[in-house]
Amino acid sequence: MTPEAFIQDHLQASVPVIVTDAMRDWPALERWSPAYLKQKCGDMEVQVYDDLFALQNIEALSDYLDSNFGKPAGTRCNRYVRAYVRFKDVDFSWADSLFDALADDWDRPAFFPRDAFILPRTPPGGERSPVTDLFPYKGLFISGGGARTRLHRDPFGTDAVLCQFYGEKRLVFYAPDAAASVMDADGYVDPQDIDTARFPAFGAIAPTFEDVLRPGEILFIPGSWFHDVTSLSDSISVTWNFVHESHAESYRREVADMRNDFDRDMLDYLGGRG
User: Fold this and answer.
1) Is residue 90 part of a domain?
2) Which of 173, 28, 172, 37 lies closest to 109, judged by CA?
3) Global pTM?
4) CATH of the domain at 48
5) Does residue 36 fall inside a structural domain?
6) Domains in the chain: how many in total?
7) Which long-range contacts (CB under 8 A, 24 or more apart) does 66-69 make?
8) Residue 160: inside a domain
9) Residue 274 has pLDDT above 80, yes or no
10) What is the tens place of the pLDDT at every residue in 202-228?
11) Is 274 part of any domain?
């Protein structure tokens, strides 16, 4: 897929896609096993969350891998490493050093734009790469089998990319027009534990897309799409969010809407308020 085709057919059209061949030459596809990560950066601290982004602990990566990888089939892990690179100006156990240690193992996907980003802000004539530059919510996602990220959509209508290196993930997507059925003022429906009193219309809809993301595949998640992701096995992924100039107007509307008050510190840090 070319960057032009990606921008026209998926970014501008807000259509999810799994690209199956864009990381075939990356060393990480062969290297990134639990043993490799332990050897390379096992003593580095990582952020451990529950299934909906509530921080549970800060611990060494090797401790998480020892406690949560290699469990019997059917075991459900309820702790999820989301090792984020700094995206706001606060003192925290960010994972910048972890990404620095792994930078030679992966690359910018060939279809991913080089420039014209609003978030992170890109000067005229400049370029950005998720390998070397700060992108919102850029993170190494590591999860034991059965771990889950419950249904949600990403802040401010930002688009997202997820690169799968190890293990498989089950994807369940609902289009933005399902909003009235899958969310209310207090949050989102849990498709695996439905509160029918809160979400009476949910039973009448079906997922817009369902699929399995496999090693070597890259998922594009358009802004405002609802997604629920379960690790079918022990899993290692990299993700980042962004806003391209093709979504400038919709992004500015999201930022101007004061109901969308989550992580405005991130916008200031990455230059995304203007």
Assistant:
1) yes
2) 28
3) 0.96
4) 2.60.120.650
5) yes
6) 1
7) 68/143, 68/144, 68/147, 68/234, 69/34, 69/144, 69/234
8) yes
9) no
10) 999 999 999 999 999 999 999 999 999
11) no
30 — pLDDT class (breaks 50, 70, 90) = very high
- Owning domain of residue 61: 3-269
14-30 average pLDDT score: 97
For tokens 């059917």, the residue is 74
